[in-house]
Amino acid sequence: MQLVIPSEVEESLGVNMTQLSPTSITDALQSSTPIAEIQVQGWVRTRRDSKDFSFIELNDGSSLRNLQIIARNTLSNYPAVQRVTTGASISVTGALVASQGKGQKWELVADNIEIVGTADDSYPLQKKGHTPEFLREVAHLRPRSNLFSSIFRVRSRLAFAVHHFFQERGFVYVHTPIITGSDCEGAGELFRVSTIDLKNPPRKNGEIDFAQDFFARPTYLTVSGQLEAEAFALALSKVYTFGPTFRAENSNTSRHASEFWMIEPEMAFCDLNGNMNLAEEFVKYLIADAKKHCPDEMELFARFVDKELLSRLDFVIELPFQRTTYSDAVDLLKNSGAKFEFPIDYGLNLQSEHERWLTEKHFKCPVTVFNFPKEIKPFYMRLNDDGKTVAAMDLLVPGIGEIVGGSQREERLEMLEGNMRRHRMDPADYKWYLDLRRYGTVPHSGFGLGFERMLMFITGVPNIRDVIPFARTPGSAEF
Fold first, then answer.
1. Which residues belong to CATH 2.40.50.140 in the chain?
2. Whole-model pTM?
């Protein structure tokens, strides 16, 4: 659209009237010179009226910051503009000029305002603050708020950083199946996938006959893509998965969700030490990337979510990971004199309070704990020479505890079969997985990082429901 700009405005701008204009508010706010022709679209955050003009704060989701629109009373539809309310969508064309107000570099003097969509008085996101609990009830609208638009821009950036990290290191991205017949973790917390008629299921010998189901066997939503990723790592050397996983764990804590995303790299010819090196590098990389590319959002989190956030993130970036065995970690905790809610002894899982004590009180740096008792770890982890521990590792960070879990995988066929029997698994159900040990087996390892857990750590947001666009939790599958 070509605008007719008064000559006095043209002289003050000092630019060519046909200059191309940005189309997003981010571009407008980052402009280095005034622009005489610009068109932006977005949603109204606020409107306030003066005698001869109105101020409209506009946001299109591309930036945390709003663009101020100056709507003069000479606009042909000015009476309609004065009725625009928070939540309405508009399209504005005009001149980008230096702002006379504080806190902003530019503002847009509107030549034309088109009201695209109105919002009535029932619009729930008003200027006042809203609690996270309330905003979860309107999850379809909460991305329009400052906090949640920032969270989901960071989520987008972090997803890109995940791919960038692995791609520049020669990893191949593998899409592992969402529907599976395997229980990778052996915990039995699986969502069943079935087309069987629940009112009249086929039966055989009194039991449901899953041979007549769609896949002719019991199938589930995956809890991990690890087993399938191992198959590709033992052909392509270095692979990673990044996709949705599911767990039917009846937990309503702030750290658990029924649907979440996992990042799971697998590497052939790699032992536990190489695995720990990559995991530690990966965690530091993601934190540094968010700080570099999302400075406005990180500043908002530090001001309104967690005032210690930036110092804690710097703590992880700047300090090397300390490494300690599980046995030594247990001894340190038992001899610490600290009072813990959960008991600590050899053979018990470390709880968040134990992990945080190690990072925040004792080592005062991020910590990698390795060599765990075989009894508390899954079947696929490699048995160490002591016959008592497996080559497993957990990466611990301050404020949250474990953020990465991984292991060297058991590559010896006989040992893996023994592990399965000890975990009361039928090796016949995992023939394809055992084949990987029959045909050219090699040492290999990998780890899993919960994407939402990482987002919680980087943003300081304490509840996993608030870093997932539409959270799935026990008793709740809205939207």
1. 7-117
2. 0.90
